[in-house]
Amino acid sequence: MPIQIVRNDITKMECDAIVNAANPTLLGGGGVDGAIHKAAGSGLLRECRTLGGCNTGEAKITGAYKLPCRYVIHTVGPIWKNGCDREEEKLRSCYRNSLILAKEHDCETVAFPLISSGVYGYPKEEALYVAVSEISRFLLENEMTVYIVVYDKSAYRISKKLVRDIAEYIDEHYVETHQILRSAQFFNRPVEKCAKGSMSAPMESEASLNELVGQVDESFTQMLLRKIDEKGITDAQCYKKANVDRKLFSKIRNNINYKPRKATAIALAISLELDLAEASDLLQKAGYALSHSSKFDIIVEYFISKREYDIFTINEALFEFDQPLLG
Questions:
Q1: Contacts (Cβ under 8 Å, ≥6 apart) of 133
Q2: CA atoms within 13 A on the CB side of 124
Q3: Distance CA 147, CA 138 (A)
Q4: Are strands 192-193 and 199-200 parallel, antiparallel or unpaired?
């Protein structure tokens, strides 16, 4: 997955490079900076003393010493001054210059903290938006896996209004479905769930097995490629918007009968901006359905029904409700 947002200690990340939210001296400090210097050992400080500091928005690279990565990329984020000192421009520069430096050193995996969101006071929600948008822009032209490492849930939180709206949508659909299930169980009535989450009686088929087998429809891969052509986009635009790895997409494209994970199938449906009926059809090709007995499915349905297709906003909502992420 090109961008992964994880809760972890950045000093424990096993990747090619981790990014240090440093101060201008590069000689260590508090927060992430202090933790990285402590975990790396005295060798990191000795090398940093040779670099002559670093300006806000710029980046410099060192060895990693005792850390489980190859490099440490040091960048200096802006101090938040209520948006009056070009803070967003400077913060974007931190991510952009760090990624350019990682590419120059052949890094395939890079882990970032949420730069400037600690003692420098940058609002966490806005800092996350800048991080995701700037990293996404870089990944449109480059192949790399980037981790955004957050320390706690408060660093990755959508607006309270959206949380309320999704919670109401979940309550309306999730509770309704389970009330039907409980009623059916009480009266000992069999209930079967159809592909769109509604309830129906078991279906009886008059067709023979040979006739049914002969009516096999297009596969997931075939429908996916057809929709990419219909939308007039490239493969790369599709899998990058879906936050899906290029190698995985290649496996799907080259195997007509490939069955992706449900989260991958949903991510690709979202990248194609399919409506709810089309998305359900694509999922069905892979053997899945959106069910009102799953909060994950209901949250996905909420965004598709409102034709909101930004996968990172959807992932923020899934994260808020403790659900697995897409991609």
A1: none
A2: 16
A3: 14
A4: antiparallel
Check 9, 33, 85, 165 and give the catalytic one.
33
**193-to-64, 180, 185, 263, 292 alpha-carbon distances in Å:** 53, 11, 14, 20, 10
For residue 320 the two structure tokens come to 């808020």
Residue 33 annotated in active site: yes
Q: Residue 78 in contact with residue 115, Cβ under 8 Å?
A: no
Coil, helix or strand at residue 20: strand
In the structure encoding, which two tokens stand for residue 62, read together? 């060192």
Residue 56 near residue 76 (C-beta atoms within 8 A): yes
Joined tokens for residue 224: 């996916």
Contact 267, 244 (CB under 8 A): yes
Residues sharing a CB contact under 8 Å with residue 324, sequence separation 6 or more, in sequence order: 263, 296, 318
Residue 130 is inside which H or E element, if any?
helix 124-139
Residue type, 282: L
Of the candidates 303, 15, 267, 239, which has an alpha carbon nearest to the alpha carbon of residue 148?
15
Q: How far apart are CA 81 and CA 120, in angstroms?
A: 9
- Among candidate residues 326, 299, 324, 301, the one with its CA nearest the CA of residue 312: 326
Per-residue pLDDT of the chain (327 residues; tens, 9 = 90+): 588 888 889 999 999 999 999 999 999 888 899 999 999 999 999 999 999 999 999 999 999 999 999 999 999 999 999 999 999 999 999 999 999 999 999 999 999 999 999 889 999 888 988 998 899 889 888 989 999 998 666 555 555 666 677 778 878 877 555 454 444 444 454 444 444 444 444 444 555 665 554 555 799 999 999 999 999 999 999 998 998 888 899 999 999 999 999 999 999 999 999 999 999 999 999 999 999 999 999 999 999 999 999 888 888 888 888 888 887
Q: Taking each helix axis from N to C terminus, what angle separates 311-320 and 124-139, rounded to the nearest 10 degrees?
A: 140
∠ CA 97-86-102, nearest 5°, is 10
Alpha-carbon distance values, 46 to 11, 26, 27, 242, 258 (Å): 18, 10, 9, 42, 51
